[in-house]
Amino acid sequence: MGDVTMVCMTQPEVLIVQHVPWEKPGRILDSLEDLQIPTQTVCIVKEKKPDLPDFKELAGVVIMGGPMGAQDYDKYPGLKAEEKLARAAVSVGKPVLGICLGHQIIAGALGAKLSHGKEPEIGFAPIKRVDKHDYFSMWSKELNVLHWHNDVVGLPEGAQLLARSANTKNQAFRAGSALGLQFHLEVTATLLDEWLAEPTMTEGMKKSQIAKIRDDFAEYDPQLQPLADQVFSGFAARCNTYMQTLQAR
Q1: Does pLDDT of 171 surpass 60?
Q2: Residues designated catalytic
Q3: What is the pTM of this model?
């Protein structure tokens, strides 16, 4: 019998890019795990030449939020690698999801302009749906969601604007296989507790402001959870379909 060459096949997975320990994927991870989709979480924001998984084996990419600016390249050189990753994923149709900073990174990677907002948006405030998409088929016209950002980003050329708020034109967009959300549907009650216990998240906030965020979460989350489940399960389903195409090669 001749020599037999064993080929080790890499299991496709979804890559989750975090920037700080407390900005976790929350409900996004729940939806991926519901479909038994393998994930790997990395933090590469301070690395000039990050060691990333094999791009060809990625079934999807999630880019989370963080306190840094999307173009703070000098202090956080890994942001350039994240932009490159997002752009490459969209170019081949891999599902991509960006939350807050991740939303800005993806939009910037696709050519949109980043700028400082008129004022910070922190806490619950309404956004308006401006276009329909199957990700948001159950979304009412106006919805109170959790915001936590200073910067804003424009709409990439050719992208579909899905939602806006009084101070932020681009609250949600779709561009090819990418979905960007400036707001935070991923946050669970447990995750919110972590945020509010993190000094950098609540710096400069009064106790009354923190208490209002807790109260508003209790009021609005029952309405947000079904939407979050729809959005993130839809993303997970797209990742699952892409994973099956990789496995069928």
Answers
A1: yes
A2: 100, 184, 186
A3: 0.94
